[in-house]
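Input for the complex:
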Amino acid sequence: MLSRRRAWVLFRTNWYKMMEYRAEAVIWMLAAFAQPLVTLAVWISVAGQGSVGGYTRVDFIHYFLAVMFVERMTRSWVTWELEYQVRMGVLSAYLVRPIDPIWHHVVENLVYKLFFAAILAPALVGVGLLWPSLRIPLEPALLPAFVLSVLLALQIRFLMCYILGSLAFWTTQSLSAFYLVDTVMYFLGGRIAPLSIMPPLVAELARWMPFRAMIAFPVEVMIGRADGAALIEGLLLQAAWLLVFIVLRRVLWQAGRKVYGAVGG
Amino acid sequence: MKMRKYGRLLATFFRACIVMELEYRAHFWANVVQTLMQLGIVLLTLSLFFAHTRAIGGWSFWEVLVLLGVFTTLSGFVEFFLRPNLGKMVEYIQQGTLDFVLTKPVDSQFFISFRYFAFFKGIDVLLGLATIGAGLAIGGQTPGAAALLYFGALLLAALAIIYSIWLALMTTAFWFVRVDNLHMFFHSFFEAGRYPVTVYRPWLRFLLTYVVPIAFITTVPSASLTGRLDAGSAGSALVAAAFFLALTRWFWRRALRYYTSASS
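Predicted:
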């Protein structure tokens, strides 16, 4: 584990780094919103005055606002970072430090997630105050469950990205693998539509896949479509996936370090 | 005479880029796989939408497929020559290497626009055209010579608009230097062109037609193949293209006068 002092140093340096690039971070965030907004526009036009699979126009707006929030909270760039470190041999510099290199990534992720949360959470509340119909229908009593589901989701997604990045120990195509998985997640993670309006077979498959645990489930909690037994089931599935990914990343890391040969000196 | 010179230059640039790219053949295949995957996503997305509706913004399945073909074709062109060239342009300005371009006996805008080509992205253009063909086949349409001619002209106009907007955005680098991220805005708006402009609410439709002319980029060229084209929007698209080209040309020249190179 990480000592308190080291954690604080890591946090501070990463925070300063983040602040250096804050304008870029906001631009990239806004640009990434284009895709969900366009998809939302199509669903609104499809729903018209009626509803699609239990989602009216306003429900779709809530859904995609939640997708934009959860997607931002869970997105991680660690695949690129790790791929770069392995490919260029920069990883060596981290290996000789007295902490597991994953902590650098963990803290960096925490920092940019805090940064985005600090922007998006007030923005969502503000939108809800200005346009009451757009207020996300999250019951205050479910807020802790929602926060928990996001915390679990961001760890699962981070670990998945880390695992895909660590494929760079063996292949130069680890980024291609990432894009492939990301494409699958686009559908099975509920980024294109609520899972419940997908074909039943796909929806059932998605329910048991890790992608729902990374995005769709926290979104469902956020808009009040997962409570009671469904909430417990979802959280348990998240915990299970988290465990699987923790073990998998450890195994891959140990094996990868053995085959790692740094390039250059 | 001048045309011949620029034609020869273009051929030389082409050759140089092909030679360079043959070095990276694995890249080509990775790109083919990626494009096929994107087409797969598009088809799955469409079938999901059309499982719940018979039309998107009043356009039926085959029409939207044609439009997505146009979108893919255009993004293929963007990757083929816009990104390689305009991406480098900001670098020229930041590092002051634009000096080397300015001292060459060619038009500087021509040089920074057409020096590099990413040939392996050309495959996207072909796949886009194939998608258009598939859409037309599903719709049981055979466009006549006139429709094809219109389509060709409007596709060129769309390219001209994209080129102009992007170059204008990048030209702001003469003043602001660090504009690498500005192209993200372009991509965001371009994303809106994936669907017919009629899916958007009226105010947004207005914005996407007259402020950021996304409607002229995908909706109007597609309409020429699906029989929805009206003379008004075809004319406006051509006028808009000419207007944006001229505006960007003016802006580029103005920016050059402002250029003072980087410190050395």
